[in-house]
């Protein structure tokens, strides 16, 4: 464990940015966003960003391959370059956990080399949540925001900045931070950890339970009548998908450029009506079916394929972004996932 | 350097022959840019074909793995990409990647079995790969029955191959049907599911069905009425796909992805999945 005075945070950021591309959450009027650091930018004070930082590993749009066309003839140009190490500074426990969920998709055989390249080079500095929000429910999914995963963990209290280096990748930060941080004892952040854990218990969504769900329960929920009711006002806008740190569906499209053709992939949403549209028909013609697909995937299908792990991290972004105020918490409660009174 | 093993980056293919099968189906012969077969596959597996700038989609490989010189794809004109494919000429370069999916169990569950293939329309495309594989290794399998139907006689894909090759093999019986009476058609007239029921097949056969979803549904029902168990019946599914490797998230039926857990399913496995296909 290392520490320095909290007022040295700008010096810490500046020092890291001299060695690595650095990305951090920055506050704006409409909320915080992850963006590239430049001198003078300060770390957001918000619990979480509007969009998750998954885009640094799985970009919203990226080129897969370029083609040159010459009459009937074609050639392929591979656009991939080895990434340089980069640092994502200030990721919350939920977002760090979401990468483990995406890893199981993109790093399973056959490996997605685009994602893997970025994962290999991304150094994650996570940040403990001293003030979890009312929309937070990460503990429902077994996440401890006082002790996030990551290559290094950052703790900020009133006067002090603590940095706990957890991995070899995280240790790469020690060179830039030489002379800024000093050694300290692990237990110096214990008070803060305990305080966070106390606050978590008082959060309004702390009673949300996952025990009703899990792998192999497709039959229990698929035919439930609640899907019709819950999705009644769903606009199919896909906002929930775009802010979600664990949604990984993508589309592949071609785009004609001045000197060839670019094949790119971009995020897609199972909430969209043409997501499964084929020339011979569509297996999900109703919004309620698409709505059901999204939540069944997170609560039943993903756990079925991945050792019971849920594809939700309780970040609460969809609670804030949905224009009709529908979200996974309401879905879980409607399907019997409310802990209070049931225990 | 392009690594063709990298799943989202395709390899180049050259169309070396285009056969017009029916008014809306053409069969494309494809080799890699070095003139060889693009990659090895097993019957029932699929490949992603694309015309860069138009799009990419999944197609079943209709040639048998025993054909080591090239690959064939029978493609019905029914959307944007397939319209373009129907317009290309021999010599056109396209892209191809694969093979994807779980094949038919030709080297396990099918061994020693009497086989019954039932296809409707373009549904013969994936079955042609298995049929020719079984013809090549004829001694490994029992009798072979092929029931094939289309809207009209001119919509029967691979008609020449059926008449000139398949029907001349020992132990292979061909049962053709068309939906409506047609001039010069002396064969059976009627829908595939009804025809299958009327043929009263022995219930010890292993059946493989492929065709439009509605045809699969009623044929399976018919077989069950004849006394077939769903464990004896296989089918191959098709849903919209982008990646082919279980990551883009759109071809799932419940927790299964058609691209990697399928496209071949045994009908009792399908029964365990939610009714969303």
Biggest sheet overview of chain B: 7 strands, mixed
CATH class of the largest domain in chain B: Alpha Beta
Greatest interface by residues involved? A-B, 52 and 47 residues
Average residue-wise pLDDT of chain A: 92
Distance between the termini of chain A: 40 Å
So what's the oligomer here? heterodimer
Radius of gyration of chain B: 18 Å
Output the keywords.
heterodimer, A: 343 residues, alpha+beta, eight-stranded mixed beta sheet, four-stranded antiparallel beta sheet, globular, B: 277 residues, alpha/beta, Elongation Factor Tu (Ef-tu), domain 3, Rossmann fold, six-stranded antiparallel beta sheet, 6 helices, 15 strands
Structure description:
The complex is a heterodimer of chains A (343) and B (277). Chain A has 343 residues and is of the alpha+beta class. Chain A has two domains: 2-201, no CATH class; 218-334, no CATH class. Helix content of chain A is 29%, strand content 22%. Chain A starts with a strand and ends in a 9-residue tail after the last helix. The model of chain A has no long low-confidence stretch (mean pLDDT 92). Chain B folds into two domains: 11-99, Elongation Factor Tu (Ef-tu), domain 3; 115-236, 3-Layer(aba) Sandwich (Rossmann fold), CATH 3.40.50.80. Chain B has helices at residues 80-87, 124-136, 159-164, 192-198, 213-226, 267-271, and strands at 11-22, 25-32, 46-51, 55-60, 71-76, 93-100, 115-120, 144-150, 172-178, 188-189, 206-210, 233-236, 252-253, 256-257, 264-266. In chain B, 19% of the residues lie in helices and 30% in strands. Chain B is of the alpha/beta class and 277 residues long. In chain B, β11 (206-210), α5 (213-226) and β12 (233-236) form a beta-alpha-beta unit.
């Amino acid at each position: 464990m290392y520490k320095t005075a909290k007022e040295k945070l700008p010096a810490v950021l500046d020092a890291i940015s001299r060695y690595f591309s650095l990305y951090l959450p920055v506050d704006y009027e409409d909320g915080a966003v992850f963006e590239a650091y430049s001198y003078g930018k300060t770390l957001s004070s918000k619990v979480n960003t509007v969009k998750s930082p998954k885009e640094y590993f799985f970009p919203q749009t990226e080129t897969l391959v370029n083609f040159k066309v010459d009459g009937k003839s074609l050639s392929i140009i591979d656009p991939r370059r080895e990434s340089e190490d980069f640092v994502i500074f200030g990721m919350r426990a939920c977002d760090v956990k979401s990468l483990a969920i995406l890893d199981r998709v993109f790093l399973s055989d056959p490996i997605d080399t685009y994602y893997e390249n970025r994962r290999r080079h991304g150094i994650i500095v996570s940040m403990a949540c001293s003030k979890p929000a009312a929309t937070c429910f990460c503990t429902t999914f077994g996440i401890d925001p006082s002790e996030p995963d990551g290559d290094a963990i950052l703790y900020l209290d009133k006067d002090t900045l603590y940095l706990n280096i957890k991995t070899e990748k995280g240790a790469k930060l020690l060179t830039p931070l030489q002379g800024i941080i000093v050694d300290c004892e692990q237990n110096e952040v214990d008070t803060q950890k305990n305080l966070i854990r106390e606050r978590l218990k008082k959060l309004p969504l702390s009673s949300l339970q996952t025990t009703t769900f899990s792998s192999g329960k497709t039959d229990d929920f698929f035919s439930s009548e609640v899907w019709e009711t819950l999705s009644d006002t769903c606009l199919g806008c896909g906002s929930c998908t775009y802010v979600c740190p664990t949604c990984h569906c993508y589309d592949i499209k071609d785009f004609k450029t001045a000197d060839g053709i670019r094949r790119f992939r971009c995020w897609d949403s199972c909430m969209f009506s043409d997501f499964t549209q084929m020339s011979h028909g569509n297996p999900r013609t109703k919004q309620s079916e698409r709505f059901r697909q999204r939540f069944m995937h997170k609560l039943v299908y993903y756990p079925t394929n991945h050792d019971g792990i849920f594809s939700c991290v309780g970040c609460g972004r969809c609670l804030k972004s949905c224009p009709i105020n529908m979200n996974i918490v309401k879905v879980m409660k409607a399907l019997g996932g409310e802990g209070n009174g049931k225990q | 350097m392009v690594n063709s093993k990298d799943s989202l980056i395709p390899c180049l293919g050259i169309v070396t022959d285009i056969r017009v099968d029916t008014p809306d189906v053409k069969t494309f012969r494809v080799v890699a840019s070095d003139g060889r077969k693009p990659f090895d596959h097993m019957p029932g597996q699929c490949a992603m074909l694309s015309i860069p700038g138009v799009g990419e989609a999944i197609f079943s490989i209709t040639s048998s793995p025993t054909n080591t010189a090239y690959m064939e794809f029978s493609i019905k004109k029914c959307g944007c990409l397939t319209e373009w494919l129907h317009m290309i000429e021999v010599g056109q370069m396209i892209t191809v990647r694969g093979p994807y999916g779980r094949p038919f169990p030709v080297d396990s569950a099918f061994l020693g079995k009497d086989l019954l293939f039932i296809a409707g329309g373009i549904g013969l495309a994936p079955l042609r790969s298995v049929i020719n594989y079984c013809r090549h290794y004829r001694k490994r399998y029992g009798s072979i029955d092929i029931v094939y139907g289309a809207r009209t006689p001119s919509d029967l894909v691979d008609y020449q191959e059926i008449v000139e090759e398949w029907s001349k093999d020992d132990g292979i019986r061909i049962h053709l049907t068309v939906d409506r009476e047609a001039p010069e058609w002396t064969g059976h007239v009627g829908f595939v599911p009804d025809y299958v029921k009327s043929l009263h097949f022995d219930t010890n056969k292993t059946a493989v069905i492929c065709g439009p979803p509605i045809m699969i549904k009623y044929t399976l029902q018919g077989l069950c009425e004849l006394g077939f168990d769903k464990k004896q019946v296989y089918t191959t599914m098709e849903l919209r796909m982008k990646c082919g490797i279980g990551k883009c998230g759109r071809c799932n039926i419940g927790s299964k992805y058609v691209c990697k857990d399928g496209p071949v399913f045994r009908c009792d496995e399908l029964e365990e999945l939610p009714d969303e296909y």
